[in-house]
Specification:
The chain is α+β, with helices and mostly antiparallel strands and 484 residues long. 52% of the residues lie in helices and 8% in strands. It has a seven-stranded mixed β-sheet. Strands 6-7 form a two-stranded antiparallel sheet. Strands 10-11 form a two-stranded parallel ribbon. A hairpin with a 2-residue loop joins strand 8 and strand 9. Bound molecules: adenosine-5'-triphosphate and magnesium ion. Adenosine-5'-triphosphate binds next to helix 7. Belongs to the tRNA nucleotidyltransferase/poly(A) polymerase family.
Length: 484
């Protein structure tokens, strides 16, 4: 038998339970990962002690009522070990709606508890006295196989999320799905629509964070699961591109993701890479080497927003990924690369996003299969960005602020101050030399002397310039490309 290295804290919890006369096993993913020589993501202990009894033994614990699990605090910082989940043996009762039931029925034996688990490799229990492995889990670990416990069809009808877990674990562990388990997924994919989007999102996110995310994504496609997660990506299957690409849109998106994974980039970059061309199929015009995808980044941005909201990603992540997709073609929007153009570009995409956008850009380039050298124009843009990086691109970066304007001109708080500030910024964006106290005060005085109507007109011109692309065009495009 393998020499398991159980962390002291976990061993101590088991010992406390055993000394109180209860059984205690390490079980599930942690045993699987130990057998594989991987670091477990979390530790689970199964016991015949009831939740109240567990709590009594571990005063420093949290009881999560809905799942019958007591989380014991170890006081460790390591996030995989800070809480150890101690769960009473249980079987699951009714499965009428294809979901893991909320009602928990306690069981008497570890054998019963193992029988409700999803895959053989996740149904191995360990304690110092010995291993309980009723379904050949150790064997499957050796063979690198994901196999359902018992009848796969029944397992997926009980809880449809297990199908997605199978794909996620396959990618995470570099395993294969055993044939009858795979067939049962193919047969039951549509049951995934009964599963809450949060559970789906969590597994999908784990999949995207594995080193074989691209391969996992292909498996989601092959099994049919993808249509219940991000069906929009399927629109790109078989859609050819133009002379700059050798891959279909689907293949290209996948390869862009693979590049981001290879680089070890975080979730948002991975999702941005995966979705960056999601708008292409809907915007494709013409065919063959000369086809075009005009405005696909705008359509893609809108689609990404919907996808991220549907999957209930936290707003901050959703916004960031949407922004990356929306602006991934940034270079073409710069027009001529003047300093003023670069300042306006930075204002539009946000200087803080430039690094991430360049990462998406790189993933796009490498994922195209015919990577051109890092284009000269892009290098020039970087040089220009560096050159203008200290220049003002928002009103907070102007050399005078609203209060100073009010004092200098004897103005009361009101919209006029805001109008003046935004006209000043607009002019500084065009010419950064205008950003000195003296020049700004002088210009502010001129603006103050104008009639309200004139000033509003100037201010509106600045605002329009900022929003012309964002609004008018987007309304039109929404209608045209079915993103309502
Ligand atoms: P990870 O490495 O991400 O922690 P895991 O397999 O340990 O993967 P957990 O969510 O931590 O996943 O679940 C712990 C254990 O609980 C699993 O190994 C499995 O035995 C059982 N389990 C989890 N989800 C299900 C499910 N949907 N159906 C049946 N058993 C499940
Ligand atoms: Mg786990």
């Amino acid at each position: 038998m393998k020499n398991f290295s159980i962390p002291q804290e976990v061993a101590d919890i088991s010992k406390t339970l055993a000394e109180a006369g209860f059984e205690a096993y390490a079980v599930g993913g942690c045993v699987r990962d130990l057998l594989l020589g991987r670091k477990p993501a979390d530790w689970d202990i199964a016991t015949n002690a009831k939740p109240e009894e567990i709590q009594k033994l571990f005063p420093d614990s949290v009881y999560e009522n809905a799942f019958g699990t007591v989380a014991v605090k170890t006081g460790l910082d390591d996030e995989t070990l800070a809480l150890v989940e101690v769960t009473t043996y249980r079987v699951e009762s009714s499965y009428s709606d294809y979901r893991r039931p909320d009602a928990v029925v306690f069981a008497k034996t570890i054998e019963e508890d193992l029988s409700r688990r999803d895959f053989t490799i996740n149904a191995i229990a360990f304690r110092p006295k010995g291993i309980v492995d009723l379904y050949g889990g150790q064997d499957d670990v050796k063979k690198k196989i994901i196999r359902a416990v018992g009848n796969a069809n029944d397992r997926f009808n009980e809880d449809a999320l297990r199908m997605l877990r199978a794909v996620r674990l396959t990618a995470q562990l570099d395993f294969k799905i055993e044939e009858s388990t795979y067939d049962a997924i193919r047969t039951n994919v549509d049951l995934l629509k009964h599963i809450s989007i949060e559970r789906i999102r969590d597994e999908f996110e784990k999949l995207i964070m594995t080193p074989r995310a691209g391969w996992g994504l292909e498996l989601l496609h092959e099994t049919g699961l993808l249509k219940h997660i991000i069906p929009e990506l399927l629109e790109g299957v078989g859609v050819g591109q133009n002379k700059h690409h050798i891959y279909t849109v689907w293949e290209h998106n996948k390869r862009a993701l693979e590049y981001a994974v290879e680089k070890g980039y975080p979730l948002e970059i991975r999702l941005g890479a995966l979705l960056h061309d999601v708008g292409k199929p809907r915007t494709k015009a013409g065919d063959g080497i000369n086809s075009t995808f005009y405005a696909h980044e705008i359509v893609g941005g809108m689609m990404t927003k919907k996808i991220m909201e549907r999957l209930k990603f936290p707003k901050k992540i959703a916004d960031h990924v949407t922004h990356l997709v929306r602006f991934h073609l940034f270079y073409y929007n710069v027009g001529d690369v003047t300093e003023a153009g670069v300042r306006r570009f930075l204002k539009r995409v946000g200087s803080e996003n430039v690094d991430d956008l360049l990462k998406i850009r790189e993933a796009d380039r490498i994922g195209s299969g015919v990577p051109k050298a890092f284009p000269y124009k892009l290098r020039h843009l970087l040089f220009m960005i560096d050159k203008v990086k200290k220049d003002a691109i928002d009103t907070r970066m102007l050399e005078i602020d609203g209060t100073e304007i009010m004092e200098e001109l004897g103005l009361n708080p009101g919209p006029k101050v805001g109008w003046i500030m935004s006209v000043l910024l607009e002019e500084v964006l065009d010419d950064s030399k205008k950003n000195s106290k003296e020049k700004l005060f002088e210009r502010a005085r001129e603006l103050d002397a104008m009639s309200d109507a004139e000033l509003i007109k100037l201010q509106k011109k600045a605002k329009d310039r900022k929003e012309e692309f964002e609004q008018g065009v987007e309304e039109e495009i929404k209608k045209r490309y079915r993103v309502s």
